[in-house]
């Protein structure tokens, strides 16, 4: 955590995924740990903005602690020498998948707010999303992943809404008759984006709720 927050990188040993493998830690357990950190920082008199920033900075650890990242890189999903992107049918097919997925998202009551609040930007967002998936699924990496967190932080996207978008993507893949194995691989790789898209939104909501209740 010291290194994560900008301190010296003194840790040497097994990585987080290996250390936590087999412990059965789930999202609830990780959320509890995060909230206990927040309580400790609050008791030390750390200001709320700094606490919020620390909580968000810790969020990317979730995937490693829950063992979600291990083996989920596109290059580990090669089948018969083909990447996930190639098994989809290439970039043109992926563009069609994304376009159809966006058509579903704009009418899905769970997430349509994010896709309809500024229609003028929808085309650009669709292009960026296609670029992001292209790189994730084994194609050229033209999207800067460092932009994900700042772009989504203020949107307050919950895990529920992230899952809804993934469901729309899976439904489109089914419509295009992609094999179950390909759809599963796509879903696995995309799951590594969760913490960068939600930015700890669920935890931040819970912290805010408890603070509101405590203040009456």
UniProtKB/TrEMBL annotation:
Pfam families: Bac_globin (PF01152). GO terms for molecular function: heme binding; metal ion binding; oxygen binding. It comes from the Eukaryota. InterPro entries: Globin-like_sf, Globin/Proto, Hemoglobin_trunc. The keyword Heme applies. Keywords: Heme, Iron, Metal-binding, Transport. The keyword Transcription does not apply. This is Uncharacterized protein.
């Amino acid at each position: 955590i010291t290194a994560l927050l900008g301190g010296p990188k003194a840790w040497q040993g097994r990585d987080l995924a290996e250390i936590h493998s087999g412990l059965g830690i789930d999202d609830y357990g990780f959320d509890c740990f995060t909230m206990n950190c927040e309580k400790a920082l609050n008791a030390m008199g750390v200001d709320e903005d700094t606490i919020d920033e620390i909580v968000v900075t810790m969020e990317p650890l979730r995937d490693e602690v829950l063992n979600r990242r291990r083996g989920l890189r596109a290059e580990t999903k090669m089948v018969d020498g083909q990447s996930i992107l190639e098994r989809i049918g290439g970039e043109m097919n992926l563009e069609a998948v994304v376009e159809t997925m966006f058509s579903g998202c704009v009418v899905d009551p769970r997430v349509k707010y994010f896709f309809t609040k500024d229609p003028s930007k929808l085309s650009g967002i669709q292009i960026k999303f296609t670029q992001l998936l292209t790189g994730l699924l084994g194609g050229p990496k033209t999207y800067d992943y460092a932009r994900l967190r700042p772009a989504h932080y203020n949107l307050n996207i919950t895990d529920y809404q992230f899952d809804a978008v993934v469901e729309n993507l899976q439904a489109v893949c089914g419509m295009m008759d992609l094999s179950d194995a390909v759809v599963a691989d796509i879903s696995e790789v995309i799951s590594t984006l969760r913490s960068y898209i939600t930015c700890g939104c669920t935890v931040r909501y819970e912290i805010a709720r408890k603070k509101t209740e405590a203040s009456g």
